[in-house]
Amino acid sequence: MTQQTHETGSATTTVPATTASAATVTTPATTARGDTATAPAPGTPDVPPLAEPRPLGELRFWPRTFHDRLTAPLPGLKAMARFAREGSVRPGRDGLADIPRLPYEPGPLPRTDTGTVAVTWAGHASWIVRIGGLTVLTDPVWSRRIIGTPARVTPVGVAWETLPRVDAVVISHNHYDHLDAPTLRRLPRDTPVFVPAGLGRWFRRRRFTTVTELDWWEAAELSGVRFDFVPAHHWSKRSLIDTCHSLWGGWVLTAADGQRVYFAGDTGYGHWFSRIGGRYPGIDLALMPIGAYDPRWWLSDVHLDPEEAVRATRDVGARRMAPMHWGTFVLSAEPVLEPLTRVRAAWQKAGLDREDLWDLPVGASRALHPVASGRPS
User: Fold this and answer.
1) 3-state secondary structure labels for all residues of 308-367
2) CB 3.0 to 4.6 Å from 265: which of 218, 250, 355, 361, for a disulfide?
3) Is 0.85 topped by the overall pTM?
4) How many CB atoms lie within 10 A of CB 292?
5) pLDDT tens digit string along 317-359?
6) Rounded to a whole number, what is the distance in angstroms from the first to the last CA of the chain?
7) Cα–Cα dist 60/204, whole Å
8) Are the C-beta atoms of 280 and 157 separated by less than 8 Å?
């Protein structure tokens, strides 16, 4: 497996904008690796300082592909042939039998203020995150069906009409189960959207007016909340001709009072988690994928299994973990209820406090409440 760090520093060339009001156009240098900090000297801790926030809606030019960011090769012809031969893309009858038992308990969104962090799981990788007084949607998919996949096995946990005003959206990557055009069409076009490098054009074509594209380790701010884009072990593709033409990653959301939520997006296990934890200490909650992992020979490079999700949560230094990316769409061969039972067992085996595993049903919420010290309880 290739392990590239992409932390050697980056430079940008500012170009006067000739279109778009008050926009800055920047072109990443050919040596850019998604980090504005200089690499530390030998023998010093490998934790560069946080990048200065970039302007919202900045227009930027990117490399044509991000293949150099892959931490494992994409499957070749031999692997594709094996996958087609084995046909292990769905659970068997026994693995599907537990669909009626999948946890689904929709309820009202909790009341929050600027000092409260609350999350509500709408299903798959879609969360309503309340932080710093903002309402942020992650990878919003409210559609019943996505391309190439059977219909959802649990309904959306939160009716669209009951959502408060959406202050921002974060997107982890462009796969159809994370970037859903019918859902995004429901949003006002002036909704601020934070997306990986190379994905801004997709949104601007759909007339979104405040689209902020970020490279790994870059950040922007909105109403006092900091949005940092961080690496993931994954890839991107939306058509036959755009493999890795846009970046992929996760998001660290930090409120003005220091409360932090890490949304991992879609990822396999690897070295990035400890680096994220080193750069963003004190993560209060990690939203971590635990499903779509079987067969492992096919999916281990790009999807965590439940045990790896617990390990990754510890690597990033998060005290709490909320599982996601399971129980919504049938994307792989593991039994539909297995991710939940395995993550609970792994959490217990690791000796972690049961209260810190937020294994929410679809539609349920949970909140962190600040204490006098300024950190949540």
Assistant:
1) HHHHHHHHCCCCEEEEECCCCCCCCCCCCCHHHHHHHHHHHHCCCCHHHECCCCECCEEE
2) 250
3) yes
4) 22
5) 999 999 999 999 999 999 999 999 999 999 999 999 999 999 9
6) 39
7) 12
8) no
